[in-house]
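Thread: Newbie trying to understand structure tokens

Hi all, I'm a second-year student working on a class project, and my supervisor (Dr. K.) asked me to get a predicted structure for one chain before our next meeting. I've only ever worked with sequences, so writing a 3D structure as a token string is new to me. If someone could post the tokens and maybe explain what I'm looking at, I'd be very grateful. Here's the chain:
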Amino acid sequence: MRQRAEPRRRHCLPAVAAVLALALLLPLSARAALPREESVPGGVALVPLGAAAPAAVPPRAWLGEQPVLVTRRGGEWIAVVGLALDTQPGTHALRVQSPAEPAAALLAVADPATASGRASFTVRAKDYPAQRITLKDGSKVELSAEDLARATSEIAEIRLLQRHWRAADDTDLDFILPAQGRMSGRFGLRRFFNGEARAPHAGFDIAAARGSPVRANAQGIVLASGDYFFNGRTVFVDHGNGLLSVYCHLDRIDVRAGEAVAKGQRLGLVGMSGRATGPHLHWGVVLNGALVDPQLFVAARGHER
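---
Reply by user tm_fold:
Sure, no problem. This is what the structure looks like when written as tokens:
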């Protein structure tokens, strides 16, 4: 017998705009490990920004209006740029502000249009395969008016969370897998539910037994948690500098918004809440507001792609 759904809950950190304003006053940095570069829609571009002297302040960079994570690789600054699945192939540019500008001006800058330079990079095309899924519960495909209104509101809420920015000097880019199990859904698949085209698969699925632990892939702060129509019980973890991880379809959530979590700490349990055909973890990674392939952050360990 299907268990009765728990009351819907939301736990979100307040004042996202205030956090963004504060972040503009602080330097950006990250630990030395970098994701594997794949400059395609849904991938990550590593864009050189110039020489990095010891103890120097990093430049700032924006893709459009969204701040971008900047870190040091050897003797140079690197912008680690997330590329959304709808990014068009071709030449793109970051707006870059040099720390050599007057300190007062640097602290006052809140508009990337005032940035002092540009750094170009190229995005290649990528053709993702198709995936066809049959759901017995057709109400998750053809939504009622009530469910459509709920889903639309939740999508707007999630998009706001994805644009969250918190400056940090300890962003860990060297991820561990958040669950043990079989890969059951690759990133970027063009999905068809009951024959109907839907949004591409913007995460990585790990099939595991219901109740298996789901762990933080890196240290961070829980940004939000909730029970969503499509994603089910979900946890958002903020790793700093525009890097977030998302854990969906959980059976149970064991953390709260605002809680600091360590790499490997249990966040909840694998389940099949929301729109799911079986127990699994849908793991998403957000970088400067773009959902990108999580495997790029663990590829250095030799995980199969």
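A couple of things are worth pointing out once you decode it. Helices lie at 16-23, 103-108, 145-162. The longest helix spans residues 145-162. Feel free to ask follow-ups in this thread.
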